[in-house]
């Protein structure tokens, strides 16, 4: 393995390491999921400190330490500002959920597609109207299920098989349209709150683990807000990112 490497990556997670460093978990097209250390990033005068936060889209210059087998970030620059993800609670919660999905359900062996899919989604989410984040999240999660190739069977919302596991309750035609439509261009779906809940259940079932960010997402959407953040999947505000 080459000791020096340059790549573009999404920073999905950033953890404190010791007193002055940060350990980042990244997704890139060529390295897949990997960790790299921002040495000194927690120091007050660190040039890399501002970049060592989640949801950064970065160009990285890395050094691989062969003896201890770890990556070190020697330099980095921001490819595209994604500050909007951290300026609104709706966007931030959705970004946290998408990052967790990428961490635990990435398509191994197809890193380039995983990276491209998530990068495009986060870029769109960055300037998405907050009132429309919930339907966008439904579409992204559903498309991610299809992207990973997990088997999904469909039942109508009025079916008597509502209690069955591994079924998303939605009309097949609407569900197929959600998957096929470009992200952000979603058709109307009946009972979107119910569809969202079943998608989340299905994701946890196929992954075999609890998605920690779902607790925060569900708590933030217990009450239906005026304007229908979960009532109409067919309307978006003008000016949404393209």
Task: Spell out the key features of this protein.
242 residues, alpha/beta, OB fold (Dihydrolipoamide Acetyltransferase, E2P), de novo design (two linked rop proteins), globular, disordered C terminus
Describe this structure in words.
- It is a single chain.
- This protein has helices at 89-105, 111-126, 133-148, 172-180, 192-207, 212-220; strands spanning 4-17, 21-28, 32-38, 57-65, 70-80, 153-155, 167-169.
- With 242 residues, it is α/β, with parallel strands linked by helices.
- The protein folds into 2 domains: 4-80, Beta Barrel (OB fold (Dihydrolipoamide Acetyltransferase, E2P)), CATH 2.40.50; 84-220, de novo design (two linked rop proteins) (Up-down Bundle).
- Helix 3 crosses helix 4 and helix 3 packs parallel to helix 5 (192-207).
- The chain starts with a strand and ends in a 22-residue tail after the last helix.
- Mean pLDDT is 80; it is low at 156-169 and 224-242.
């Amino acid at each position: 393995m080459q000791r020096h490497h340059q790549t573009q990556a999404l920073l999905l997670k950033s953890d404190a390491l010791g007193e002055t460093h940060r350990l980042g978990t990244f997704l890139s097209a060529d390295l897949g999921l990997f960790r790299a250390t921002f040495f000194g990033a927690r120091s007050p005068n660190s040039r890399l400190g501002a970049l060592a936060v989640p949801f950064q889209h970065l160009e990285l210059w890395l050094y691989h330490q062969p003896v201890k087998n770890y990556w070190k970030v020697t330099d980095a620059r921001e490819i595209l500002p994604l500050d909007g993800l951290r300026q609104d609670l709706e966007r931030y919660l959705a970004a946290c959920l998408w990052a967790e999905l990428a961490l635990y359900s990435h398509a191994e062996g197809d890193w380039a597609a995983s990276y491209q899919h998530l990068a495009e989604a986060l870029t769109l989410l960055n300037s998405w109207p907050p009132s429309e984040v919930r339907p966008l999240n439904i579409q992204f999660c559903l498309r991610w299920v299809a992207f990973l190739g997990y088997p999904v069977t469909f039942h109508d919302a009025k079916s008597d098989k509502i209690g069955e596991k591994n079924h998303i309750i939605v009309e097949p035609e609407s569900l197929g349209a959600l998957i096929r439509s470009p992200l952000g261009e979603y058709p109307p779906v009946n009972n979107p709150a119910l569809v969202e809940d079943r998608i989340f259940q299905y994701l946890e079932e196929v992954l075999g683990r609890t998605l920690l960010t779902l607790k925060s997402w569900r708590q933030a959407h217990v009450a239906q807000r005026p304007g229908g953040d979960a009532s109409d999947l067919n309307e978006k505000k003008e000016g949404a990112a393209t």
